[in-house]
Amino acid sequence: MEITCCCIVLCILGSSALGILGNPTNITEGINVQEITIEPKVYAYEGDRAELIYNVTVRSDLPPDRLYEKAVWFSADRQNYCEISQGETKCRGDQFANRTEISDTWFPVSEGERTRHGRIVFRLGNVTLSDTGRYEGEIKTFDNINNVNTMLVVKDASERPKDEDTANQVGTTTWWNGFGAGIGTLLGSGLAIAFIVILSVKLAVRRKSSQQASTAPV
Ligand SMILES: *[C@@H]1O[C@H](CO)[C@@H](O)[C@H](O)[C@H]1NC(C)=O
Ligand SMILES: *[C@@H]1O[C@H](CO)[C@@H](O)[C@H](O)[C@H]1NC(C)=O
Ligand SMILES: *[C@@H]1O[C@H](CO)[C@@H](O)[C@H](O)[C@H]1NC(C)=O
Ligand SMILES: *[C@@H]1O[C@H](CO)[C@@H](O)[C@H](O)[C@H]1NC(C)=O
Hints:
The protein has helices at about 1-20, 165, 185-210; strands spanning about 35, 40-45, 50-60, 65-75, 80-85, 90, 100-105, 115-125, 135-140, 145-155, 175. It is of the alpha+beta class.
């Protein structure tokens, strides 16, 4: 009797510890490989289409009907969300109505691999400054729920660099924090040029003002 009680307590402790850690661990023969990741910050300009791309990992032997839900919530209220659940896709909430899309793709699993990788892509069209906020991505299976937060930062349309207009005719200006992965070459070079131009203008201004204040120590 005492042994049974002890086991129940330990089991509860064990499962909550796994839940809190949320990271893949080795404890239970790799059962907890499930994961969802995204860049911490994604930027877009007012009027554009923002794109949140989540990398997801589940067990390769997970039957499709045990992947219950893939969702993105707008965290300020959790009234606005998109989800793919049991093969059905839906988006709800005033803020998300008629301008959101969610889709998922999965990469093939090679023989003997224990994990399956995929992507969830969430798109929010015609973004406004009020779309700035925390977005939460979630995957849920029969034994696990994983969440990740990202900050969508919508910038005022007037802040858009001039050179970008031509590079941006597809209507999407999403780029990743730190100009890293995912940046289109075209958009990338447009931004790089804008950056160099702005930088050199700033340097020129600085040089001029330091010449004026030529008494300042070097
Ligand atoms: C996890 O387990 C595998 C074998 O099951 C082992 O090769 C690997 O080193 C372990 N990783 C860690 C971080 O303990
Ligand atoms: C997502 O996966 C891609 C490769 O498929 C990688 O380049 C990128 O860094 C990953 N992003 C995150 C946030 O894990
Ligand atoms: C969304 O579209 C439906 C019909 O396609 C329309 O009835 C509804 O008013 C629209 N909602 C918003 C918030 O624009
Ligand atoms: C985008 O949003 C603005 C402001 O909410 C609205 O005036 C405009 O008609 C929208 N454009 C499209 C294409 O939905």
